[in-house]
Each structure stands twice: as structure tokens, then as C-alpha cells.
């Protein structure tokens, strides 16, 4: 059996030792996880859990947006995407709409995959 404190320490160490690129991927993975948990909660009519998980996904999207370096042109496009995702999460939370959550999950997965591919290419060219 895994010790809960040991697991928490492992997670903490993983985060603290991760590269900025890996941290971005971890944020996307976390947002995707919370969206999936929210979808399950909506399906099970667990409103409290759905709200909690959507709010956690919103927090991650807000953090992604806040971390943008606006000196890059692509950041302007990412602000628009993150703003759209955030607004979609709010709407999904109000309506408890799995279809909206499906759209958000799909977009987050695409962003994570794109970021992962960019990291791989960056490492190959280094």
C-alpha cells in the first residue's frame, strides 16, 4: 500500500523538479483530468463534484493565461483561446452540459499534444 504522505512528497518533487515545458504539459493534463471528472460527475448528477472539478479546470486555464509572455505574437492568439475555454467552462458549469465539456476537453487535448510535439522538436534541435 502506498503511503499518502509519500505520494504527496513524490508529486511535490515531480513538480518542483520539472522543466517549464513539462510544467505546461502537467497543467494541461490537470485541466483535462478535472474536465473528465466533471463530466463523470454531471452524468452521475453529482452537482457539487461537477462544480468543484470545473472550478479547478477554470483555475488552471486562468494560470495558463496569466503565465503568457505577451512579447510573443502567438500569446495574443493563446489569450483568445484560453478566454474561450474559460467562458465555456463557466457555461458548462451553469448548465451542467457535458457537450460543452467535451469541446473543452478536445481543445485542451489538442493544445497539450501541440505543446508536447513542440517540446520534442525543441529537444531534437538543441
UniProtKB/TrEMBL annotation:
GO cellular component: cytosol
SUPFAM superfamilies: Flagellar export chaperone FliS
UniProt KW keywords: Bacterial flagellum biogenesis, Cell projection, Chaperone, Cilium, Cytoplasm, Flagellum
Cited Gene3D superfamilies: Flagellar protein FliS
GO biological process: bacterial-type flagellum assembly; bacterial-type flagellum-dependent cell motility
Main location: cytoplasm
Superkingdom in the source lineage: Bacteria
Subcellular location: Cytoplasm, Cytosol
Family: Belongs to the FliS family.
Protein name: Flagellar secretion chaperone FliS
Amino acid at each position: 500500500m502506498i503511503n499518502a504522505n509519500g505520494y504527496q512528497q513524490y508529486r511535490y518533487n515531480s513538480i518542483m523538479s520539472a522543466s517549464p515545458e513539462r510544467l505546461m504539459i502537467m497543467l494541461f493534463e490537470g485541466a483535462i483530468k478535472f474536465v473528465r471528472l466533471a463530466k463523470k460527475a454531471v452524468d452521475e448528477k453529482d452537482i457539487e463534484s461537477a462544480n468543484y472539478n470545473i472550478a479547478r479546470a477554470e483555475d488552471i486555464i486562468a494560470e495558463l493565461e496569466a503565465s503568457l509572455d505577451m512579447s510573443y505574437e502567438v500569446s495574443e492568439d493563446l489569450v483568445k483561446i484560453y478566454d474561450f475555454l474559460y467562458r465555456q467552462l463557466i457555461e458548462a458549469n451553469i448548465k451542467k452540459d457535458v457537450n460543452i465539456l467535451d469541446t473543452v476537453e478536445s481543445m485542451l487535448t489538442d493544445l497539450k499534444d501541440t505543446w508536447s510535439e513542440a517540446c520534442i522538436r525543441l529537444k531534437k534541435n538543441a
